[in-house]
Protein: DUF3828 domain-containing protein
Organism: Elizabethkingia anophelis
Amino acid sequence: MRFLIFVLLLLLTLVQCSKGNEEKDEYEIINLILKKHVNTYSVRIFPKKGYSDEKIRKHFNDSLLHTGKLTYYLYSSIDKLDTTSSRRTIIKDKKIDLSKIQSLEINRIDNIPCKDRMTDSCDPYFTAAYYFSEIKFKGNKALVMLNFQCGGRCGKGLLIKLLKENNQWKIVKEDMVWIS
């Protein structure tokens, strides 16, 4: 009987440790993806000389980064699909601890600065609203969906595949799932 209790306690301890590591990995992945994808892609401010020349566009976008005025919004929940019932599918929310999100050159804001939450009528310095799917792990691999919307005809969804090598997550492949 003591042996059975010992084995059960050992299993519970291992399960708790793996859940803690998984949460740490989730925030590492979210921060890695935000660092790569929060950018000036959808800014509604354009240089006076036009926007067609790649050199002018890059210089102008880089100068916008350093103004400190650019913002983005991160939905504070992760979409999680619950398919345990064969009769219906439910989307459950898993909350994101925003205090674990690293700061970027573009500032994260608490509310979408748009009329009626429509991203076409936003502050011109607002870049996009980002949201994540649940991150699925399998050993040293992970899969997550990133969606961002910057307007009625501006946004995209990416299926991102990651690999953990030398205790560090790396993005190995991105597939565009939708574009607007």
User: Anything to note?
Assistant: The chain has two helices and nine strands. The longest strand covers residues 154-165.
